[in-house]
Amino acid sequence: MTQAPPSDTARRKSGFARAIEHMFTRNIPAKIAATPMVTTVLVVFIGCTIWTIWYSFTGSRLLPSNEFVGLAQYERLFSTSRWNVSVRNLLFYGAFSLVFTLSIGFLLAVLMDQKIRFESAFRTIMLYPFALSFIVTGLVWQWIMNPTLGLQGTLRNMGWESFTFDWIARGDMVLYALLIAGLWQGTGFVMVLMLAGLRSIDDEIWKAARVDGIPAWRTYLFIVLPMMRGVFVTAVVLVGAGIVRLYDLVVALTNGGPGISSEVPAKYVYDYMFTAGNIGQGLAASTMMLVSVIIIIVPWAYLEFGGRGKNQ
Amino acid sequence: MARAVSTRRKVAVSIIAWAIGLIIFFPILWTFLTSFKTEGTAIAVPPKFLFFDWTLENYFTVQERSDYFRHFSNSIISAVGSTIVGLIIAVPAAWAMAFSPTKRTKDVLMWMLSTKMLPAVGVLVPIYLLFRDFRLLDTHIGLIIVLTMINLPIIVWMLFTYFKEIPNDILEAARMDGAGLREEILYVLTPMAVPGIASTLLLNIILAWNEAFWTLNLTTTAAAPLTAFIASYSSPEGLFWAKLSAASTLAIAPILIMGWFSQKQLVRGLTFGAVK
């Protein structure tokens, strides 16, 4: 990430008019080629986002209406306990799922970073959960964690009377149940990513570390880990995108219950718009989600990717 | 590769690795096995692993009750359709960004990718209303449009990373030898881009196949894909394990089988191009 040379900056400023001219004449085929995509993205994402934000300031109920109510929807949103629980749940799930998928994924990758037999088949199997729809994951785990029919019931029937695994039915533990299903789906994926990262580390580094007599765990922690920054960034982006959109898994696994103890923001939006017939309230909630994602993403992306294409 | 290891240690690690693999795979395996049991055997104590009367009854019941094949063909149409449309839009865009990058290329990419981080539910209502007005609800075309749009950023990003690996020198050499734009694309670029496109294609089919949020909200019956099919077993039939298993197996089998036969593309695609 080096600074652009000053001469370049100077040229850019003095040739402003030329730059404008260039904008329309240079790389014509490239511009034409990119047009359909840019148009789609612009119209759909920007258009729909603006629409959403505008109607969150209205009193729309079953149908969108233009009756302006100011911040009333937001006041109501933050005084609804279900919304506050949803936000807390998402933060909790997000933090834990990010930390655990990354750390377990990395540890597994370190363990596998030797020539194990049938490695490509192994990688495929580790990736299988990630290739499943959240709906299927949710149903399968709903069944495993069902207190009477699943793991707990089976082990108890087999004689282990005191075995308890009823998280899914307990309000204080249900988020951990959600977390287990999420980890099952995501860890193998992170492991495969990390494994590829470990493989890309030069053998010379290992040799040098060995010559210096550095123990393997320290080499991993202090030399290899910092070198895998890029892989970690990719993993964080992909895992993070999954967390923000957490919806299907909750619907399939717990449907927000017991009570409201596993509600998430996306479900709140959905329920208000389609079940409760209160579009304005749903849109206020989704605007809050959009805004908080943007607040997190933009500064981070700017730092991480160096904004003005400095590191091209 | 990282370190030389003794054979004994290698075998030990292989065993541990495969044990972990088996644990990860077990829920899928168990679902598969249960789908061939009767409802009675499915909840038998102690659980029967392999030695039970295998039956296809659940599959017939599931097909009869919710018409698997219709949902299956809907899934195929929407996943393949959206992938093809997506590639048609994304290939030129990624090509442009990879071979004639401007100062803003990186920003555009980053911005596009960040839209993928935005919660889909934020734009659900406007899309729903647009679809209603254009009579696209519960149609294949509508589903293809929405799946294309949500996966487009990922497709462009992946294709971009693949295209960027193609050395510019080769293209210049081809140009020196008098290749026109057409020949350049047809004989130089395409053969080198095909592996990347294949991985992208597979990834996108999987993403579209699994997309539940939009498909559940924008379809009811006529265009409902397999995600809707499996979701319909969620609550009312929750206690019928064997049938639920048969439905789940039917819904995931196509992806798992396809993935097994294209492992390289699967790994490359599912890790979004990070694993070469």
Instruction: Please tally the helical runs of chain B, counting DSSP H or I stretches of 4 or more residues.
Output: 13
User: What is the overall number of helices of chain A?
Assistant: 15
Q: What is the CATH C-level name of chain B?
A: Mainly Alpha
Could you name the ranges of chain A where pLDDT drops below 50 across 5 or more consecutive residues? 1-14, 307-312
Which architecture of the largest domain in chain A per CATH? Orthogonal Bundle
Secondary-structure class of chain B:
mainly alpha
Name the CATH homologous superfamily of chain B.
MetI-like
CATH superfamily of the largest domain in chain A: MetI-like
Total beta strand runs of chain B: 0
State the end-to-end CA separation of chain B: 15 Å
Q: Which structural class should the secondary elements of chain A be placed in?
A: mainly alpha
What is the fold-level CATH name, i.e. the topology of chain B?
Answer: MetI-like fold
**Element order of chain B: H for helix, E for strand:** HHHHHHHHHHHHH
CATH fold-type name of the largest domain in chain A: MetI-like fold
User: CATH first level of the largest domain in chain A: which class?
Assistant: Mainly Alpha
Mean pLDDT reading of chain A:
80
What is the rounded Rg of chain A? 25 Å
Reconstruct the topology from this structure.
The complex is a heterodimer of chains A (about 300) and B (about 280).
Chain A: H1 6-14, H2 16-25, H3 28-55, H4 72-78, H5 81-112, H6 119-127, H7 134-145, H8 151-157, H9 174-199, H10 203-211, H11 216-227, H12 229-244, H13 248-253, H14 265-275, H15 279-305
Helix pairs in contact in A: 3-15, 4-15, 5-9, 5-12, 6-9, 7-9, 9-12, 14-15
Chain B: H1 7-34, H2 39-42, H3 57-66, H4 68-99, H5 105-115, H6 124-133, H7 140-165, H8 168-176, H9 181-210, H10 213-218, H11 226-231, H12 241-261, H13 263-270
Helix pairs in contact in B: 1-12, 3-12, 4-7, 4-9, 5-7, 7-9, 8-9, 9-13
